[in-house]
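Page 37, continued from 36.
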C-alpha cells in the first residue's frame, strides 16, 4: 500500500497505523465543541422561519440530518413523516445550522492544539505562495506544482512534512465526519487543470472552463448589460485548500463551522465548472444574502439562469449561496 492509499484508508477509520504512518484518528485530534464553553444556539427554526423561496426537500434533509443523528436510520428521533406540516426537531436544528452558519454548535468538530498550529503555518505558506504565483494562476495550481514553487522560492519556503501530511489528511478525510454532506468532486489530490481547458476572464483575475461555463457566463453578462462579473471561477485543489484553511483559521480550527460556508478541498464544484457571480460595485455584499435582493439577481432568476447548488434548504450542510451558479448536475 503506498503512502497516500494508507492515509486514505486510515482517514476512513479502517486502521490506526500502517508502515509506521499514523493517519487522522479523529478522537485524538478533534474534539466536539461541546467540551468548551460555546454560545447557546438560537431557538429552532419553526415552519414560519423558512424563507419560502422554495419547497423543502424533506427526503434530502432527512438524509443529511440522519447522518448527524445516527438514530435516524433506526426509527429514532431523526425519523420524519414526509408531508407532515411541521419540522421534526433534528431537521429544524439542521436548517438552523445552515441559516446561522457562523455560530458554534456543541457537536462541532474542532482541531486540537497541535493540528491548529499546523493549520496556521500551512495557511500562511499557501498565502505566501499565492502572492508569489499570482492570484489568477493560483486558482489552477496543482499540488505537485505548489510543492515545486515552495522549494524554488525562498520567499515561500519549502512545505514541511507536517504541513504536507496535514494537507493530505484534510483532503482524504471524510467531510461527513464534521458535517459537510456534499459529494466528493475530486478524487485525486494531485488533480491538474490543463491550460487549454481554461480561459482567463478579462478584468476578473479568474478562469472558466471553455465551452458551456464560458458561454453561460458571457451570455449572462450580455443580458445584464455587464452589471455582473465573475467573482470566482475554476478552483483547483490547492486554491480550495487555501480558502478552506483561511476560513478554518478564522474559526479557530472549527472544521464544521468552516464547512458550513465553504466546501472542503476536493468537494468544491468550482473544480468542475461552477462559478460565482457578483453585482458590479457591490463589494462584500456579493457574498451574503443581500445579493439575492439585488435587481441583477432577480433578473437572472427571471431569465432562468439561476439554478442554485446551495439553496436555503440544501441537504449538504452549507449556507445559502445565491451567487453560486451551478454548471454540473
Ligand atoms: Zn461558489
Amino acid at each position: 500500500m503506498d503512502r497516500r492509499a494508507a492515509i486514505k484508508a486510515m482517514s476512513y477509520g479502517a486502521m490506526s497505523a500502517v508502515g509506521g504512518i499514523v493517519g487522522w484518528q479523529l478522537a485524538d485530534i478533534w474534539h466536539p465543541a461541546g467540551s468548551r464553553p460555546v454560545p447557546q444556539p438560537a431557538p429552532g427554526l419553526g415552519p414560519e422561519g423558512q424563507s419560502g423561496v422554495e419547497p423543502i426537500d424533506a427526503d434530502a434533509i432527512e438524509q443529511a440530518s440522519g447522518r448527524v443523528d445516527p438514530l435516524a436510520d433506526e426509527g429514532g428521533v431523526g425519523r420524519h413523516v414526509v408531508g407532515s406540516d411541521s419540522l421534526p426537531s433534528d431537521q429544524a436544528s439542521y436548517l438552523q445550522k445552515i441559516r446561522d452558519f457562523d455560530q458554534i454548535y456543541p457537536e462541532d468538530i474542532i482541531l486540537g492544539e497541535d493540528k491548529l498550529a499546523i493549520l496556521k503555518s500551512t495557511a500562511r505558506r499557501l498565502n505566501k505562495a499565492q502572492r508569489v504565483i499570482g492570484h489568477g494562476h493560483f486558482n489552477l495550481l496543482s499540488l505537485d506544482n505548489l510543492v515545486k514553487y515552495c522549494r524554488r522560492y525562498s520567499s515561500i519556503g519549502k512545505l514541511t512534512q507536517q504541513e504536507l501530511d496535514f494537507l493530505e489528511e484534510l483532503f482524504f478525510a471524510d467531510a461527513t465526519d464534521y458535517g459537510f454532506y456534499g459529494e466528493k468532486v475530486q478524487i485525486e489530490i494531485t488533480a491538474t487543470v490543463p491550460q487549454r481547458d481554461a480561459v482567463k476572464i478579462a478584468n476578473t483575475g479568474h478562469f472558466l472552463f471553455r465551452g458551456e461555463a464560458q458561454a453561460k457566463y458571457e451570455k449572462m453578462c450580455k443580458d445584464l448589460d455587464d452589471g455582473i462579473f465573475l467573482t470566482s471561477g475554476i478552483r483547483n485543489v490547492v486554491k480550495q485548500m487555501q480558502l478552506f484553511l483561511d476560513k478554518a483559521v478564522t474559526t479557530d480550527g472549527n472544521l464544521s463551522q468552516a464547512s458550513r460556508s465553504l466546501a472542503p478541498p476536493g468537494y468544491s464544484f468550482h473544480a468542475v465548472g461552477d462559478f460565482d457571480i457578483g453585482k458590479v460595485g457591490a463589494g462584500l455584499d456579493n457574498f451574503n444574502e443581500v445579493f439575492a435582493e439585488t435587481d441583477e439577481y432577480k433578473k437572472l432568476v427571471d431569465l432562468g439562469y439561476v439554478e442554485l447548488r446551495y439553496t436555503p434548504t440544501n441537504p449538504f450542510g452549507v449556507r445559502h449561496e445565491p451567487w453560486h451558479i451551478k454548471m454540473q448536475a
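Residues 108-325 form a domain with the Muramoyl-pentapeptide Carboxypeptidase; domain 2 fold (CATH 3.30.1380.10). Flag for discussion at group meeting. The radius of gyration is 20 Å.
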